[in-house]
Design goal:
Blueprint: H1 3-8, E1 15-16, E2 20-25, E3 34-42, E4 46-51, E5 62-68, E6 75-90, E7 102-108, E8 113-118
Antiparallel strand pairs: 1-3, 2-3, 2-5, 3-4, 4-7, 5-6, 6-7, 6-8
């Protein structure tokens, strides 16, 4: 299937984005992993991210995503959700080193939840 045909079949418009994301094995995985990588785009139903480790993924696989949002010195916000791998596109010809091996497309299994971690001023402990 050509990429153009695939894009015509999407229910949601995709928006470019370059946030860091941690991808972890879902609950049904026998082998655990954590892939720290970058999102390439996001839509109402899913996301696409790069990987240098495409061998970790297969269609239908359940994974957990933690998308790191821009933060401040006091706050480290993120969005977390469960997802399912829908497609894998090998991209050895791309110049982008982060996407040298593959793009992974996933659909979200429910809503993303907002998480935040507050940093404590370590120099002012009592």
């Amino acid at each position: 299937m050509s990429e153009k045909y695939h894009e015509d079949q999407r229910a949601f418009e995709r928006h470019p984005i370059d946030f860091a994301v941690d991808v972890n094995a879902g609950g049904d995985q026998a082998e655990e992993f954590c892939d720290k990588t970058l999102l390439k785009n996001i839509s109402g139903g899913g996301v696409c991210f790069c990987t240098q480790q495409p061998e970790l993924y297969c269609a239908g696989q359940h994974i957990a995503l933690k998308v790191h949002l821009p933060g401040t010195d006091e706050l480290e916000p993120s969005m977390e959700c469960q997802a399912r791998v829908v497609w894998i596109h090998h991209t050895d010809s791309l110049d982008d080193e982060a996407c040298k091996h593959a793009l992974i497309g996933v659909c979200l299994d429910g809503f993303m939840s907002f998480e935040s971690h507050h940093f404590q001023d370590r120099g002012n402990s009592a």
